[in-house]
Amino acid sequence: MPKGIPLTPEEQSQRRFEIVGIAKNIFKEKGFQGTAMREIAEAVGMGKSSLYESFKTKDEILVFALEEEVLQLIEQSQGIAGLDLPPDIRLKQMMQIYLKFMQTNNTLFLWLSVEVHGLNAESQKRLQEKRYAYQDIVRSIIEEGISKSFFRKVNALNAARLLINSMLSILYTSRPTGSAEEMWDEAIEIFCNGIKM
Amino acid sequence: MPKGIPLTPEEQSQRRFEIVGIAKNIFKEKGFQGTAMREIAEAVGMGKSSLYESFKTKDEILVFALEEEVLQLIEQSQGIAGLDLPPDIRLKQMMQIYLKFMQTNNTLFLWLSVEVHGLNAESQKRLQEKRYAYQDIVRSIIEEGISKSFFRKVNALNAARLLINSMLSILYTSRPTGSAEEMWDEAIEIFCNGIKM
Amino acid sequence: MPKGIPLTPEEQSQRRFEIVGIAKNIFKEKGFQGTAMREIAEAVGMGKSSLYESFKTKDEILVFALEEEVLQLIEQSQGIAGLDLPPDIRLKQMMQIYLKFMQTNNTLFLWLSVEVHGLNAESQKRLQEKRYAYQDIVRSIIEEGISKSFFRKVNALNAARLLINSMLSILYTSRPTGSAEEMWDEAIEIFCNGIKM
Amino acid sequence: MPKGIPLTPEEQSQRRFEIVGIAKNIFKEKGFQGTAMREIAEAVGMGKSSLYESFKTKDEILVFALEEEVLQLIEQSQGIAGLDLPPDIRLKQMMQIYLKFMQTNNTLFLWLSVEVHGLNAESQKRLQEKRYAYQDIVRSIIEEGISKSFFRKVNALNAARLLINSMLSILYTSRPTGSAEEMWDEAIEIFCNGIKM
DNA sequence: AATGAATGAGTCTTCATTCAT
DNA sequence: GATGAATGAAGACTCATTCAT
C-alpha cells in the first residue's frame, strides 16, 4: 500500500503466495481460461496492473500455483520416503498423501492438463521438471523395493507412473464404486500385488 | 460444391467427417479453446459460416469428434470381447487396440476426460454415456474372469477404470522408458498379475 | 413447383401476396430485423432464393406488406367516405375501421415506424404516398364538415393527422383505462367535440 | 484520458453523458439496431472496448439516452404543474415544453415507445415507469381541471395519453401545414375545446 | 423455374496487457 | 509503487444475398 517504498524480496515473495493462494481458488471454480485478471485483482484487493508487478503474465500465476502445490507434495512425500518402513507401506502412505492433494486441488490439476498446452514452452518445462521430481520419489521407493527383493524386477519409472496415474481413475470418475478410500485401497492393492515378488 | 442441389444425407455425413477429421488435427495441436472456427474453416477450405451448416456450434464439433473415436473403439472392443479366448488374453488384446486408438488420437482422448468441462450438460452426458459403455466392456471381461476364477474377487468396474487409466501413463509421458509396446507390456502385466488368482 | 414453365403475371402477383401474407405474421411476432429470410422461406414452403424471384430484397417484402394493408384500409375508408351520412358519423365509422386495422396488424405498423428509417429512399417514398392518400380521405371528410358548418374552421389536414394519431394512444398503451372500444369512444368524442361548431 | 487515475463519479457520469450525447445522434440517423458499437466508439473517439467501461451493454446506452431525456422532461413539467395558473394554461405550457423536447430529440422519442421492444425486460420496465410518470403529470392537471369544473368529466389518463400522442402528429409529418407552432396551437386548441366544460 | 449451398461482412462482447499519472 | 483507463485483437455466431446446377 505505501507508495514509493520498495518491497523487500521477502515481501515480494509473500505477495506472490498471497496472490496465488487466492487465484488457485478461482481457477478451481472457473478454470484458467475462464478466469480474468480483473477477477484475481479484485479478489486479492489490488489493482489489475499491480498483479503484473508480481507476475509478468497470467500464465505465470498458473505455473506458480501448480509448482507450489507440487513442491508441497514433493516435500511431504520425501518425508515418507525417508521413513524406516517396508517399501510397500511407504508406497501406500505416499499415495494416500497424493490422493489427498489431488482431492484438495481437484479441478486445479484437471485444468492443468487441459490448459497446459497453451502455456509457453518454458513454463511447460518448469512444470515438467517438478512432475519428474515427484515421479522420481515414487520410483526410488519401487527401486528400493526391487533391490530388497520386495518387488519383482520391473521398470521402476514405468511402474511409478502407472501407480500415480491409477489414482486419477479414482478422482475423476463420475461413477464411483465406493468411497474414494475404498477405491484407493483396491487400486493400491492391485498394484502392489502386481509387482510383488 | 454444387450450389443449389441439396446435399444427400450421405454427403452431409461425409462432410461432417471431413470437417471433424481436419478439426481434430487442429485441436490436437492447439487445444479446443485455442482453435478458432475461422481456422477450421480455412483448413477445410470453406467459408466460416458454411461450417455452421454442418455443425450448429463449435462444441458440436468436439463432441462429434470424440464420439466418433469412442464409437469405433467400442465397436472394435466388442469384437474382441466376443472372442473365445481366456479373459486375460482378451484384456490384453483390448488394451492393445485401446493404445493404438490413443496413439492415433493423441491428446484428443485426454480431452475426452477433461476438456469436456465447459460443454453444455447434454453434450457432457452424451460423451459420458460412451465412456461408460466402453468401461463396461472392459468390466465385463474382468467380471467374466472373476466368475471363471481366473481373477481374484475385485470390484470389476474399479479395476477396469484402473486398467484404462494405466494406459494414459504410457501415452502422455515425455520421459519414456522404452517403446510404447514395451511400456504397455509391462503395465498390462502388472495389472493382470495384480488381479490374478 | 413445375420447373421451366414461366409464371404468368397473375401467378407472380398471387405468389407475392402469398409470401407477404405469411411474412407479415412473422414480422408481427419478431419484428422486421428479427426475421430471417430463411424463416420466411420455410414458412412459405419454398426455397430461400426463390423468394428473391418475387422480391428483390428483404425490404421490399416489408414495403409490400405495409402497402397492402394500407391499400385495403384506403379502400374501405373510401367506401365510408362516400356514404350519405353526417360527417361526424362517417368520421367515427372510419376510425372504427382504422382501429380494427391497427388491432389486426398490431405490431406490424409499430415496427414500421421503427424500421422504416433503414429502408431505402424509394421504399420510404412509396409508403409515404399511401399514408398521404389515407390522410387525405380523413381530411376530405373534415373539410366537408367544415364547409357544411358541422365543424369549426380548422386546418383539415392537421386535424386529420391529429385524429389518426390519437388512435395510437389507444393501441399501444400498456396501462389501458378500459376496453379499446371505450377508450376509442372517448377519444373520438373529445376530438369531435373539439372541432364541433 | 489520464491513465491510472480512477475517474471520479462526476467524470464517469460526464463521460456517460458525452457518449450518450454522441450516440443519440447516430441513433437518430441510423436507428438503434443499425448502429454498431464500433461506430459509436469512433465517433466518441475512444476504443471500442472502452465504451464497455461506461456502459455494460449496447442496450444500456439506449436506455440511458431515453431516460435522460424523459427525466429532464419530467422535471421541467413538474415545475409547470406546480404553477398557480388555470389548468388549461398549464396544459398548454406543458405541451410546449414537450414539443420542444421532441423537436430536439426527433426520432429518439419515437423509439421510446417503440424500439424498446427487444430490450430486456428490466430495461423495458425502467423506461415504462418513466413514461408513466410523465403521463401522470399531465393526467394530474386534467384531473385538477375536472375537479375545478374547468373540464368535462373524462377519463383523465386516457385524455392525457391522447394529448401527448397528438403532439406526435406534429412532429413526424413530412407534409406540414404550417410551422410546428401553428400546428401545435391548433392541436392543443382542439383538445382543450374537446374536454372543455 | 427453382433451390440450397456458400460466404464475407458484420454483430456484440471479452480480456490480457500496457502506460501515463 | 500503485493503479485503472485504454485498447486492439480476437471469438463465436448470423444473415442477406448470390450462383451454379
List keywords for this structure.
Tetracycline Repressor, domain 2; about 200 residues; 2 domains; mainly alpha; homotetramer
Question: If you had to describe this structure to a student in words, what would you say it looks like?
Answer:
The structure is a homotetramer of 197-residue chains. Chain A is an all-alpha fold and 197 residues long. Chain A folds into two domains: 9-56, Arc Repressor Mutant, subunit A; 59-193, Tetracycline Repressor, domain 2. Chain A has eight helices and no strands. The first copy, chain A, has helices at residues 9-30, 37-44, 48-54, 58-81, 87-115, 121-147, 156-171, 180-195. The mean pLDDT of chain A is 88. Chains in contact: A-B, C-D. At the C-D interface, helix 5, helix 6, helix 7 and helix 8 of C face helix 6, helix 7, helix 8 and helix 9 of D. The structure holds a DNA duplex (21 and 21 nucleotides).
Gist of the model:
Chain A is mainly alpha-helical.
User: What's the architecture of the largest domain in chain A in CATH terms?
Assistant: Orthogonal Bundle
Number of domains of chain A: 2
Total helices of chain A: the number is: 8
Poorly predicted ranges of chain A (pLDDT <50, ≥5 residues)? none
> Kindly state the mean pLDDT of chain A as a whole number?
88
Total number of beta strands of chain A? 0
Helix content of chain A: over 70%
Largest sheet data of chain A: none
Largest contact between chains? C-D, 43 and 43 residues
Which structural class do you get from the secondary structure elements of chain A? mainly alpha
Please write the CATH class name of the largest domain in chain A. Mainly Alpha
Measured distance between first and last alpha carbons of chain A: 62 Å
